[in-house]
Specification:
Oligomer: single chain
Number of domains: 1
Radius of gyration: 20 Å
Distance between the termini: 77 Å
CATH topology: minor pseudopilin epsh fold
Strand content: 25-35%
Number of strands: 10
Shape: globular
Order of helices and strands: HEEEEEEEEEE
Length: about 170
Amino acid sequence: MGVIVIIMLIGTMVSISWQAIVPREQLNSDVRGLAAALQGARSNAIARNAEFRLIYDLDGNRYRTMTPYRVGGGLWTIADEQADRQVTNWQQLAEGIEFSLVVVDGEGFDEGTVYVRFDPLGAASDHTVTLLHEPYGNHYTIEVLALTGLIRFHEGEFQRDPPREEEFE
């Protein structure tokens, strides 16, 4: 009888710790997926010498990449109009995870559609993307640096302060 009680206690502890790990892993998985999409857009822009964009659908909690190429035109036919550009399939955030805030060049967005760009020199739209795991209140921010297009990760909510004039003197 004592052995059964001990096994039940151990089973309960494992179950509780597993439930604590899973939510954080869902958020981390979405952060890694979004970071891979950002890095892929930057890499493609550099490699193909053309501007790539990432589209955030804040209302649908999803994102996708927009190429500069014309739909049905192959890799060397550049589209004149944005509506003619090839796009990848939407990548949906996991259930319970949503875009909390996207800040592009100092302007915050919490609804609608937001476009950011990556140019052939590796530069990008200066922006941060904050993801929220609603049931648990966990935030994670991905920062994309404007000049280099490189990505930084910040646990919690993060916004870089704009430069002050005295920093340029």
